[in-house]
Amino acid sequence: MTTSPFNPSNQDSHRDTANTTALPDRLQRNAQVTGEDVLYQFANGFKLKTETLRKQNKWRILPLGSPQGSLMNHVLNFPEIARDKRVFEPFSGSGPLGFTALRVGASHVDFLDINPRAAEFHQANASLNQFSPNRFTSITGNIADFTPEHKYHLILANPPFVPTPDDIDGAVTSDGGPEGNRFVNFLLERLEMFLEPSGKALIYAFQVVKDDHPLITQQLVKILQNRPVEITPAQAKSSSFEAFCEGYRTLFPNDTSAIAN
Prior knowledge:
alpha/beta; three-stranded antiparallel beta sheet; disordered N terminus; globular; single chain; Rossmann fold
């Protein structure tokens, strides 16, 4: 979570900063689509290979969206947060956040993904950008039981956050559970295991809002008692939950009862 003070011991201290000045766009990306493959190229010469969103495979490697782009651009605007640091990118997919950290001088990046295909893309993207194999490690595993060999200075994460009824078989890389927070909760619960005492985590999470607060604040209050927490709204106007459900009913017309529940 980035910018906008939030004290986890007092929910009333939360306030929005939706009017903060936008960072310069240091990505300036363009995409070349060839069949089911996507190749992104960026202004600084960085390249990234992914797959198309509509590939009919639940183990597909998702293309870049605004969440990854926002975090990548943040790192490029503030390279000192990653330079010479040990960095962890869980839910890594093609590795856009970790490789951006390497681009600005991270000492080493550990990638973690439940999808065994992710490691192939890490190797391909390292080769595209001439990153030495000893600067990163690809790990196939689940955030719920992963134990690191050492703690990290920086975590960059875009967890699966799409609220998905348990009875719907969505892509493993986007299904965040009924409330969308299944995997971000795993990460928060184990944050002290992963982070150095002075370490930072930048996490982008789509949120259901209840009683004027994102649901994630309930976990922040319970778990992160000893770390400062900041939250930044990523969009000026929230989408209605009913509109979101209607989109699911359109995509999964045979699962209306699961969506209703």
